[in-house]
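Quick one: structure tokens for this chain, please?
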Amino acid sequence: MNQPWWQHKIVWGLGLLGAVMWVLTPLLGALVWPLYQPVQHPIAILTAADNTFRTVFVNFGIMAGLFIMIFLLALSEYFKHEKQHSIANKIFQVMLTLLFLLAFDWFWPLRSISQAALVPHVWQVRDGVAGVILVLVALSYWQLGRSLEYGQQRSLGNLWRLAGVLLILFALVAGMVNLLGWPLTGLFDQLQNLVTIVPIFYTSWHIIRLAEHK
């Protein structure tokens, strides 16, 4: 009998690959475009409408996002198979919010590089929408964490819940830093980026280990 597609280790490994690509995006930005300053500039500057390398970063992000979505879909199918439908539904919610997050920069990019380089940053409607999406991502992480805890996956649950809290915390600190006029927007953007992806990386690694011991 053939294995379901979601049981293959290659599929589980896509979570690791997509997570690594996600985290390496700023490093790629610094290598390809030397003017990019990760501590000062937000990651969104890489996909700004007038950035010469926009296509490179958009395509790289699409690949990373696709790998992560396939992994999360497989994870959802795994928990359905284990009769833990609440967890599967919360994973689907995480998928939707991450899709919103990824699509936001692709379809509503910064108008110009100079817009992102201003310190302090001038708040616009786009920033409000980005904030709402970030809150949705954080809430979906928190809810998934609670479901995992109820499903006897305490370590995973704690990680997802912690990530949800840190996303909001770093966003608030980034806003305060901007109001103070400190050129550290990029630093807290990097921290949000890292916190977003760590639970996915760890969950992928955890599932692969479980598969090896079965």
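The longest helix spans residues 54-81.
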